[in-house]
């Protein structure tokens, strides 16, 4: 309903009042509902009247008329507000539609989403049209406004122009600016970014930080410049430092940073036992990580770690809504709120048996319902990736004096190349692979060696990357080319070739960076790929994030970008890309 100035038109508001007057019937009545009331911080029993997508009454009364009303006796169940994910990256092979549908089965029915892929892959008018389409889903979708590309791109001043950023900030579905991955530029004097922050604050919107390892002084400076929240605390002490400087702290449990259990232990050791300034996020994890659940799983971990039950639920609901100033709509079961409600068997088991989203059943009695209408991706500007150029043997020439070495799934350092890289196939006795980043439009390429990714991988091609450009990795140039041409044939994807045969593939037919399949399908494809890569020497936690972050300059130390090989710490291009 965000396509109009107000969420509910005057006529609908009058209808809501008419339900209380007995002139209209509720569409859904939840009787004898034992529910979490955050105003009293206790479990209470009431009757809950719902009219279409809104809760119109919570209390002891029953409606005068229940014509055309579904009546549900909630005896034996416990009701909590729908969970909120405040920091979603809905483009990690899954797409916003499939991710919202999957998340709803675990009770997460409100998502605050990164707009990076929309900003990089399409013009803002088509992006805004897509946002409008997503409003028809049972899930509620809010968005961020990025201020930078998180890498060095060739036309950043166009994509992140003042006009584009201002238009995103002004959009009514956008709740915050950030995340501030380019905060070093901000501290170094980037006044345009500071202006955007000022504009966001003027519009009463939040600024999300991204401050891993930031010192107390740096945190204080960034708070002065407008930051409100940060999700990069990796120890209890870092949580403490952020709270001391006035931040809302987003506790993280993700596929590359499953920190929550340790954070809670260390927080409790420091005597932190007040949780109103804390919220939960899964920070855009890979599909397979979500097999265990989402915000519901974080609530479960918190309860197991000794967080009071109501505080655990609040960190996934009302705390987030209050922080973003949307608590008049979300985060509570109360009159006037959007009817997002989770039905539980037990207060210590936060995974719901049934789920209401905007007053619609999306899960009932443990069974998923077909509540998310299909999207025609091509009509929305998300057609398959079209590659109208060819890859040639001369594109796979390697003469770089040093390459990049993986320290973990996402951190890369430089290393001196000591092997002969002029051959067509590298030896399996080392863990070095050929590595190419090549423009998705075929205009430029960057070639080097990658150490630590695998030691027996013949050829991998991926159109999933930070910018949507093509990544090639492997020991064998012929297999790298074979994987590339299969990926091209698919319209985008992650493809592996071994000894001339395609052995793994994840089609990504939505712009070459997202799948059009359900998350459940992606989970199986991802797990199969991870098993294969581990057999070929991949030793880290998350190959999907490895592919995503090879170009991401918000992480140290060496990155391969559209500009070339980039030294993050010194902010310089060491070797420029080669024009084809």
Give me the secondary-structure topology.
Elements lengths: L9 H11 L7 E10 L4 E10 L2 E6 L10 E4 L4 E4 L1 E6 L7 H9 L3 E6 L2 H6 L2 H11 L5 E6 L10 H4 L2 H9 L3 E7 L2 H5 L3 H12 L3 E4 L6 H9 L4 E2 L5 H9 L3 E5 L7 H10 L8 E4 L13 H10 L4 H7 L2 H6 L17 E4 L9 E4 L2 E5 L2 E2 L33 E5 L5 E5 L15 E7 L5 E8 L7 E4 L7 E5 L2 H14 L2 E6 L2 E7 L11 H17 L7 H7 L8 E3 L3 E4 L4 E5 L1 E2 L1
Parallel strand pairs: 1-4, 1-5, 6-7, 7-8, 8-9, 9-10, 10-11, 11-12, 12-13, 18-21
Antiparallel strand pairs: 1-2, 2-3, 5-14, 14-15, 15-16, 16-17, 18-19, 20-21, 20-23, 21-29, 22-23, 22-24, 24-25, 26-27, 27-28
Helix pairs in contact: 6-8, 10-11, 12-13
Outline the structure in words.
- This protein is an alpha/beta fold.
- It has two domains: 80-345, Metal-dependent hydrolases (TIM Barrel), CATH 3.20.20; 393-579, no CATH class.
- It is built from 17 helices and 29 strands.
- Strand 12, helix 11 (260-269) and strand 13 form a beta-alpha-beta unit.
- The mean pLDDT is 96.
């Amino acid at each position: 309903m965000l396509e109009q100035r107000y969420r509910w038109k005057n006529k609908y508001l009058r209808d809501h009042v008419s339900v209380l007057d007995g002139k209209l019937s509720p569409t859904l009545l939840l009787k004898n509902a034992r529910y979490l009331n955050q105003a009293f911080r206790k479990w209470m029993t009431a009757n809950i009247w719902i009219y279409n997508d809104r809760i119109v009454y919570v209390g002891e009364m029953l409606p005068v008329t229940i014509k055309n009303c579904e009546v549900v006796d909630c005896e034996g169940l416990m009701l909590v507000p729908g969970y909120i994910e405040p920091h979603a990256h809905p483009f990690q092979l899954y797409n916003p539609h499939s991710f919202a549908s999957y998340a709803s089965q675990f009770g997460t029915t409100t998502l605050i989403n990164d707009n990076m892929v929309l900003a990089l892959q399409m013009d803002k008018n088509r992006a805004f049209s897509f946002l409008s389409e997503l409003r028809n889903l049972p899930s509620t979708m809010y968005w961020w406004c990025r201020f930078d590309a998180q890498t060095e791109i060739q036309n950043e001043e166009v994509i992140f122009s003042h006009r584009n950023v201002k238009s995103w900030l002004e959009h009514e579905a956008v709740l915050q600016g950030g995340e501030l991955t380019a905060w070093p530029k901000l501290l170094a004097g980037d006044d345009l970014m500071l202006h955007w922050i000022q504009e966001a604050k003027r519009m009463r919107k939040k600024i999300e930080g991204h401050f891993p390892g930031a010192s107390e002084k740096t945190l204080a400076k960034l708070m002065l410049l407008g930051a409100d929240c940060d999700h990069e605390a990796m120890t209890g002490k870092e949580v403490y430092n952020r709270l001391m400087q006035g931040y809302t702290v987003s506790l993280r449990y993700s596929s590359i940073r499953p920190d929550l259990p340790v954070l809670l232990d260390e927080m409790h050791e420091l005597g932190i036992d007040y949780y109103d300034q804390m919220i939960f996020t899964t920070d855009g994890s890979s599909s397979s990580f979500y097999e265990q659940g989402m915000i519901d799983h974080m609530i479960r971990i918190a309860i197991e770690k000794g967080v009071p039950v109501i505080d655990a639920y609040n960190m996934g609901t009302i705390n987030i809504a209050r922080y973003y100033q949307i608590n008049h709509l979300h985060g509570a079961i109360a009159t006037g709120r959007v009817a997002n409600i989770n039905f539980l068997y037990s207060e210590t088991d936060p995974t719901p048996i049934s789920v209401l989203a905007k007053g619609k059943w999306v899960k009932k009695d443990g069974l998923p319902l077909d509540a998310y209408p299909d999207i025609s991706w091509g009509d929305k500007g998300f057609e398959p990736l079209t590659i109208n150029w060819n890859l040639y043997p001369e594109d796979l020439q390697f003469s770089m004096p040093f390459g990049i070495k993986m320290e973990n799934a996402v951190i890369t350092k430089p290393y001196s190349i000591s092997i002969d890289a002029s051959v067509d196939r590298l030896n399996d006795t080392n863990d070095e692979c050929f590595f190419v980043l090549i423009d998705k439009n075929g205009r430029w390429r960057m070639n080097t060696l990658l150490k630590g990714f695998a030691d027996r991988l013949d050829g991998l091609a991926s159109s999933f990357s930070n910018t949507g450009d093509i990544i090639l990795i492997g020991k064998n140039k012929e297999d790298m080319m074979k994987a590339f041409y299969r990926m091209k044939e698919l319209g985008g994807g992650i493809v592996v070739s071994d000894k001339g045969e395609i052995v793994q593939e994840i089609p990504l037919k939505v712009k070459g960076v997202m799948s059009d399949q359900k998350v459940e399908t992606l989970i199986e494809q991802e797990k199969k790929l991870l098993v294969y890569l581990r057999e070929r020497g991949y030793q880290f936690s998350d190959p999907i994030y490895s592919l995503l972050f090879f170009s991401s300059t918000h992480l140290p130390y060496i990155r391969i970008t559209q500009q070339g090989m980039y030294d993050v710490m010194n902010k310089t291009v060491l070797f420029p890309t080669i024009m084809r």
